[in-house]
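Re: export button greyed out
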Amino acid sequence: MKLSVESARKIYDDKVVLDDVDLTVDTHEVVCLIGASGSGKSTLLKAINLHVPLDGGRILLDGEEITAPGVNANQVRTRMGIVFQAFNLFPHMRVVDNITLGPRRAGGVERGAAEVSARRLLDRFGLGDKADDYPDRLSGGQQQRVAIIRALAMEPTLLLLDEITSALDPVLVGEVLSVLRELKSTGMTMVLATHEMGFARDTADRVVFLHEGRVWEEGNPAELFRAPARPETRDFLRRVTEAGRL
Amino acid sequence: MRRSRASQKRARLFLGLHEEGARGALIAFAATVVFVALMVLWIRSSSTWPAIQRQFFNPEDFAASWPKVLSGFWLNIRMFLAAQVVILALALILAMIRALRGPAFFPLRATVIGLIDIVRGIPMILLILLFGFGIPALQLRGVTRSEMFWGLAAVVLSYSAYTAEVYRAGIESVHESQRMAARSVGLTQIQALRFVIVPQAIRNVVPALLNGAISLQKDVALVFVLGIREAIREAQIYTSLTFNYTSYIAATVLFLAVSIPLARFTDWYTERDRRRKQGASS
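Workaround output, generated via the alternate export path:
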């Protein structure tokens, strides 16, 4: 799996949200996108998942241009999973049905087999006893873990995570991050937009700082956090530190 | 004991008398008695009351017209049920087509919007007359000439246009993020609507749909203009033979016997739904 974003541009009502963004992600790599709200992190992830059409540039997945006209977006989306800040579980379905919906309807997996794999994933992440509950019975952390499992059930080669801990109570953040650490240990390729700087420093292979829709600075987390090269990066990290997030 | 208290609570809920308690219920009862008594006295003070009573509230005429009106009403019920089933399905299809996105679906969407606009713009009674008298007169091969069929088709079309808008409101009430989450696991637009959006949308509009059912239950009677012998038409026939209007009262009683329970059920369901949502969010 190799993802390349080339000169991605996105404009919303005269506001440039993505300004010639270049990004490459290699197999097994974990890349954290950091930056203030409105810096374009979330738009970039939604563009990669083809939810936001680009106004310029292109995105390639394993050399195939997925932003080309005529590409089957559904087929592309089955190869990558995305998890959102607000979980977005389907409230009218049991946990297990949330997970099996994609494999059954988009992946053509038969119901029994899909449920077996769903329950296996739930067991693996400590949610085996929640399979038959409805999402509103679960805590925020549990719901977000189910959302991650729902994305994993499609057996994606790339996982996109859009500020998945931002809506959580601080005490619940840990359980979600530990799921991500486990996924990293299995070699899952991930791109995260995150405000969890501690996690980015300890777990990411590379950190990309976005500022006003541009890639301002990127590099290995230890170096970038210790000695940011540009004043905007320094300023952002200082504010994050003051807010107690690092 | 607990059970009976629960059922009392349910009964109060049913009439919207919750929270007032026993004293409140007593006041409500007394006020109702006084109000009804005053109304009766006022109406009976009219100088033409004795004649009106003979013309509209004559027990003998009531008994004489009842069997025909009742059998006509049975037709109303059957027409209502048949029309309702078709309306719920057709309106959902129309609403789902309207909810499809992307330029490829433009012709379909435009057709549906045009159809809804036209149908909603024509008084239903006119649509019934046009369909009921017009289409059978075309004498098309293989097309039924039943006036009842075409009259009901007009009712179905008219109600479907409105009901489609109810469904649409429901579809739009489901947050955009649900659509995105559904598409993210690889579902097509139509699959996302079918498995994720529409089930939630329907839950949100059940009270509005029940309201539509109450209205439809009465409005199917409009096919009487085609000469179909449902309750109103039977009452009209009795009146034209006897010059007594009590048959209309008989029809009124029958309509109320169905619509009041439906209205109470709708209120009860809406209230229960509201409480459940509050319970879920707290």
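Chain A has two domains: 3-79+157-242, 93-156. The button fix ships in the next patch.
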